[in-house]
Amino acid sequence: MTEKLYEKDAYIKEFTATVVECVKCEKLFKIALDKTAFFPEGGGQAADTGFFGLIKVFDTQLEDGIIYHYTKTPIEVGSAINGKIDFARRFNFMQNHTGEHIVSGIAHRLFGVNNVGFHLGEELVTIDFDKELTREQLDEIELFANQKVWQNLPVRAYFPNDSELKATNYRSKKEIDGAVRLVEIKDTDICACCAPHVNNTGEIGIIKLLDCEKMRGGIRIVLKCGAFALWDYRNKYENISRISALLSAKQENAAEAVEKQEEKCTMAKHDIYSLKRQIADLSVLSANADTIYLFVDGCELKILQIIADRMFKEFGGIKAAFSGSDNTYSFVMCGEDQALQEFFLKFKSQFSVRGGGRGGMVQGSVSATKDEIEEFLNS
Ligand SMILES: [Zn+2]
Q1: What b-and-e string marks burial along 234-246, b requiring 16 or more CB atoms within 10 Å of the CB?
Q2: 48 CA distance to ligand 1 centroid (A)?
Q3: How far is the CA of 182 from the centre of ligand 1 (A)?
Q4: Residue 211 CA to chain centroid, in angstroms?
């Protein structure tokens, strides 16, 4: 069994220890020490990384009570090492993790929901609750949670004896083998947990609930605490600043300004469509019985359909409308069905064509230059 220094003091950044085991594991080495401050992945929290002297520790895992540190270099059994964990990263996890306890405890106390799943990612936390919560309820939980931060309450982790444990009403995500370690936040939450936490809630800084989605009769919420919440705020502030500058709107009115912009875009699209309809009308007016095809700029298939169909209805024969640029053109062709199909077969044999159709209309796209298409149609 490895002595877990982080259980007694979550703030140990450096320590000395003795190597008791070193085994090769695929491309890495698994190193066990007599004691360690490296937290192994568990309880929803990611594994610590860091160094043994100059040797990097990539991962830390617990196996049957022994904590293994993964390195690329072996270290001789019996050697003394100087361990140093990446404490900035660990402290951010401690902020997120302790924030998760507060939110789960408050959600349980206020609305009777249970935390049935928890994941602490590299930047954010997700909590799955067994019942749905409204946005208003989540806002209430968020406010209460931050009040607990402002009160700077002590966070106590301890191993109670059997009678203490029996007398304590605590949250537990699963049946726990061995000694139960309780993490108690005064007047807020008591939960069985093996991970390191901050000593006082003030160290969390801020708790921000972000997205939520309904799932399996419950709800999954995403939250960020401390440094992660600050970076998120910084990123969002930068974005909202740019959006408000682009729209010449105050930041607090940015969403409204975007909605107005969207309305303008919809109206502009409508205007563009009506102009294209006018182009279609004028194009047809310019055609006569001898016209086989028309090239029009910037028109989608819907407009090409109108042009080809109206030319055919007016003059008969086979009529085609093209729009595009470079070597790719969209097209619509109209004609008596059989004659059109025969014509279209020839067209396809000449060029690289995608598309088809029946009932007197074919459409698609063709890879060819305007000159090549005109030469074919005029032949
Ligand atoms: Zn915990």
Answers
A1: eeeeeeeeeebee
A2: 15
A3: 9
A4: 11
CA of 36 from ligand 1 middle (Å) equals 19
List the domains of the chain with CATH numbers. 3-85 (2.40.30.130), 91-241 (3.30.980.10), 268-378 (3.10.310.40)
- Cα(212) to centroid(ligand 1), Å: 21
**Ligand 1: centre distance to CA 358 (Å):** 66
**Residues 178-207, mean pLDDT to the nearest whole number:** 92
d(C-alpha 379, C-alpha 301), whole Å: 25
CA–centroid distance, 193 to ligand 1, in Å, is 5
How far apart CA 84 and CA 12 sit, in angstroms, is 9
**Structure confidence by residue, pLDDT tens digits, 41-83:** 887 788 999 999 999 999 999 999 899 999 999 999 999 999 9
Closest CA to 159 of 7, 10, 37, 40: 7
Q: Hey, which residues does 31 pair with through a beta bridge?
A: 22, 69
Kindly give the distance from the C-alpha atom of residue 38 to the centroid of ligand 1, in angstroms, as a whole number.
16
